[in-house]
Specification:
7-stranded parallel beta sheet; Glucose Oxidase, domain 1; disordered N terminus; 20 helices; alpha/beta; 7-stranded mixed beta sheet; disordered C terminus; Rossmann fold
């Protein structure tokens, strides 16, 4: 179990007593029709409480007073802004009784969200003398709300030196004895849903807005952190730490507890943020690729959008497979993750005078004296490393396909002096920070090292570390873990919208939470590196704050449009931005979005694609078959669906086709209509330019837009005709000053669902339990085919084929272009509740002790995680595990 470090801080401790009633109950979000509220009720809260009491009266034999008390104890939240309804902890019988209540619309089970910098502002082009920073006064007086794990107020990133008084329009406050300042102006906590939920292993937690996870402190300082000189991570990335909007205010809404965010708490947090008066919301988590009508983020942010709040969400860390994106919500901006032009390096100095560069975040020093260096093939067992005591061992993943994670683990627990890992792994960021000396080098340099060892029986070498290198190329690139579109929840809007720095981002960190382990010592720091779209999201929230400060009259859609249409599609080599997971080929908009955020250009976009509330309703009307679904989001029972349309006025385009039964010569056409608003010069002319795409004919009518006034609106049509093949391109509107880029993509229509198949056979690589390969199944609904992705694993068993046959699909076997590689997660992971299927789940912290009492180095998360599947390492405790997983997670 993880050790809790206690400080002398004033916050209360809640002890969770789990009673049998809770074991039989679940948290539910109840949607109500407000037009059905009787006039005798003065508030919706009283109506909800009365409705709940009536439902309980039909299921309990007790007095009226006891029923009212029971109803009050079962009511979790009443929601005011984000939806019409409430949340409650109910048994199955109580829920059924509630469904018969007047005004009841629907219920949703409480969901659990997954949590998805000294240099990044400069990398984005921000400059204190020109551009977005001075134009917006660094986001002064813009209020950015974050729903996250709390905040460490004492961090220098949240000092309020030189800041003005809190804006009078602010209605928020600081709870739980947290003393705020002119920087942190609001701090609230939301944990009722969490405390009602069933967590038998949880005993206590701090009932405070103070950050006990680190995630919220990190994301907050990325978005709006104050300037901090000489920030670094033990000498790495030394420089000035500063948030994107460093003069903006922070309001923290703590709804993440023990790494979990419950939908009941998230709804309440956003509900409060709207009432308090935030201008921007940053949400670095997601509930998976679920329908918008059951997604609490989609429901809550619609209300936020109506209030003029700009919302930034993270795409998720389940890449690189397509269809893994979270929060594909049309009224928010969805952010993918990219790399910086910065690397952390070590050097291997060979005895022949040749220096080999490599990647490393090793915090220690290495002896200046050279020691023997030996090649140990794949370093796949500790037995092989037994004779390498005091030596530098060189490991290659070429032989036996042993993952880099195994090699790092084995070298760390051996008596070797250091490790040199020859790796072609495309995502190494999770392996750089290690408790033992080591560097990762590319295969080309690996050949040089191996040739030296082979030619010299007394080969020696030494190492040096702690080098930060800037201006590395190419950068940015879309990183492997960043989730890709399209999303089955709303495939008609191209997502993600944008990318921003997310890999190895240095930002503020609570000093009471260890950031690394060196030997037996836990190390602490005021700054820490984290990687993920959780880090990319607050970058764009900060950009949104800058634009809100410079253009307070812009709508959330106008801010999103400005960020998207002015984004960069070229890297620092003047080439198209690459996708690391696709062998550094030009990144598709399904990975990159419109491009990489450029705050300075977004300040003056020239044209914006604005979207009103009714436009979103028209999209919902075209997508949904029921008014009930629409009303869950809009909170209205009288939605105008007279003009349904899937063609939203969005600054990107996506077209679908189905090649099922079509010939190779078949062609397809799409037509889109867009309206742009001139926010630039009063009189200007824009001309359309389309990048040539082989085989496609593209036309824009009219090809010129002549604006006579500022804020004038003009429309155009884009027609694309071509073969049934996937492709993408760019439409650019230019005048003498601006160059606006909109992306489009053609995709075969598909809905992607992941399915787990477990197998207990396979080698025991860690000496503890068998290897369990979990195989994602991608079901392409339009073509009725499923592709089983192989990852260099030889086993394909009858039970798995029988399961595919059960699904009544044709099976084609193709090789996964990316060889399977488990990830190492550097923080304690969330645990998925598969114990019902007899699985011992893994909860790792630096690959040591786990919640089941066993030791595993591998984490349950990896890049193949999908909406309906989790890949993990563990042992199966029941023979019917496969059957259980099939029933609960089958592709339906």
């Amino acid at each position: 179990m993880a050790t809790m470090i206690r400080l002398c801080l004033c916050f209360s401790i809640i002890v969770l007593h789990l009673v049998s009633r809770m074991a039989q109950s679940e948290n539910y979000i109840i949607h109500m029709d407000s037009s059905s509220m009787p006039k005798l009720f003065s508030t919706k809260h009283n109506w909800y409480l009365s409705t709940l009491s009536s439902a309980l009266e039909n299921t309990h034999v007790t007095t009226n007073d006891n029923i009212l008390n029971t109803a009050s104890s079962k009511l979790i939240y009443t929601y005011t802004n984000v939806m019409n309804g409430f949340s409650a902890n109910l048994s199955p019988n109580e829920l059924e009784a509630l469904k018969n209540s007047p005004g009841y619309i629907s219920s949703t089970l409480d969901l659990q969200a997954k949590l998805h910098t000294t240099h990044s502002p400069q990398f984005l082009g921000l400059n204190p003398k020109i551009g977005a920073w001075p134009a917006s006064k660094f986001g002064e007086d813009v209020i950015v709300g974050l729903v996250d794990s709390g905040l460490w107020l004492e961090s220098e990133s949240f000092k309020d030196e030189g800041m003005t008084e809190i804006p009078s329009r602010w209605k928020g406050q600081c709870e739980s004895s947290i003393k705020c300042n002119n920087k942190l102006i609001g701090a609230r906590l939301f944990n009722k849903g969490f405390t009602f939920a069933k967590y038998p292993n949880l005993v206590t937690f701090e009932n405070s807005t103070r950050d006990t996870e680190g995630h919220g402190t990190h994301t907050s300082s990325i978005a709006v952190g104050s300037q901090v000189e000489n920030a670094s991570f033990f000498g790495f990335a030394n420089g000035t730490a500063q948030g994107i909007a460093s003069r903006a205010r922070i309001a923290m809404y703590k709804a993440v507890w023990d790494g979990k965010a419950h939908s009941t708490d998230v709804l309440a947090a956003i509900d409060s943020a709207i009432s308090d008066g935030v201008d921007v919301l940053s949400l670095s988590f997601g509930f998976g690729n679920i329908s918008m009508y059951s997604d609490p983020i989609a429901i809550a942010t619609f209300a936020a959008m109506e209030k003029g709040i700009f919302v930034s969400t993270s795409a998720g860390n389940s890449g690189p497979d397509r269809g893994t994106l979270n929060s594909a919500i049309p009224w928010v901006i969805n952010v993918g993750a990219s790399t910086l032009d910065r690397e952390f390096r070590g050097t291997l100095a060979l005895g022949n005078g040749v220096n080999i560069p490599g990647l490393s975040l090793y915090l220690g020093n290495f002896s200046a004296h050279q020691v023997p260096i030996v090649f140990m093939d794949s370093c796949d067992t500790l037995e092989k490393l037994a004779n390498a005591s005091g030596k530098i061992v060189v490991c290659s993943e070429d032989k036996n396909n042993v993952p880099l994670s195994f090699q790092v683990y084995n070298v760390h627990w051996s008596n070797a002096a250091a490790g040199v890992f020859i790796s072609s792994t495309i995502d190494t960021s999770f392996f750089l920070r290690n408790g033992s000396a080591g560097i990762i080098i590319n295969p080309g340099n690996g050949q040089i090292v191996k040739a030296y060892i082979k030619s010299n029986p007394n080969a020696k070498a030494c190492m040096s570390f702690k080098t930060t290198t800037l201006a590395t190329k190419p950068a940015p690139s879309v990183d492997v873990y960043s989730s890709r579109g399209p999303s089955s929840s709303c495939p008609f809007v191209l997502k993600p919208d944008i990318t921003a720095p997310g890999t190895s981002i240095l930002a503020a960190w609570p000093p009471n939470l260890p950031v690394a382990q060196f030997g037996s010592q836990n190390l602490s720091s005021n700054f820490n590196f984290l990687t993920g779209t959780s880090m990319a999201c607050p970058h764009v929230a900060g950009v949104g704050a800058l634009l809100r400060g410079a253009h307070p009259d812009w709508s959330p859609a106008a801010i999103r449009s400005a960020i998207m249409t002015t984004s960069d599609i070229f890297d620092n080599t003047k080439e198209l931005i690459k996708d690391i997971a696709d062998d550094y080929k030009p990144a598709s908009p399904l990975a990159l979005g419109s491009g990489h955020a450029n705050p300075n250009k977004a300040l003056d976009p020239g044209l914006v694609y604005d979207v009103g509330v009714q436009d979103y309703v028209n999209l919902l009307c075209a997508m949904s078959s029921t008014q009930q679904n629409i009303s869950i989001i809009t909170r209205s029972s009288t939605n105008n669906c007279s003009n349904p349309s899937l063609d939203l006025n969005y600054p990107s385009f996506i077209g679908f086709f189905s090649s099922n039964g079509s010939s190779n010569e078949s062609r397809v056409a799409w037509e889109f209509q867009r309206t742009v608003t001139n926010v630039g010069e009063k009189q200007t002319i824009y001309s359309a330019n389309v990048t040539p795409i082989k085989g496609f004919n593209v036309s824009v009518v009219p090809s010129k837009l002549v604006f006579k006034e500022k804020n004038e609106k003009l429309s155009y049509k884009l027609r694309i005709e071509g073969p049934m093949v996937e492709g993408f391109g760019y439409l650019t509107w230019t005048d003498m000053k601006h160059a606006q880029v909109q992306v489009w993509e053609a995709k075969e229509m598909c809905i992607v669902v992941s399915l787990i198949i477990l197998d207990r056979t396979g080698p025991s690589l860690d000496g503890v339990g068998p290897l369990l390969p979990a195989v994602p199944i991608l079901c392409f609904v339009s073509s009725k085919q499923c592709f089983r992705y192989l990852h260099s694993h030889p086993h394909f068993h009858n039970a798995e084929m029988a399961l595919l046959n059960f699904l009544n699909v044709n099976v084609s076997l193709i090789e996964d272009p990316l060889r399977f590689q488990p990830l190492i997660i550097r923080k304690r992971s969330m645990v998925f509740d598969f114990k019902m299927c007899g699985l011992d789940l893994v909860d790792t912290m630096y690959g040591r002790e786990v919640s089941t009492g066993e030791t595993f180095f591998h984490d349950i998360f990896n890049r193949f995680m999908g909406q309906r599947g989790v890949q993990f390492w563990g042992t199966a405790g029941k023979k019917n595990t496969r059957e259980c997983i099939r029933k609960k997670w089958m592709c339906i």
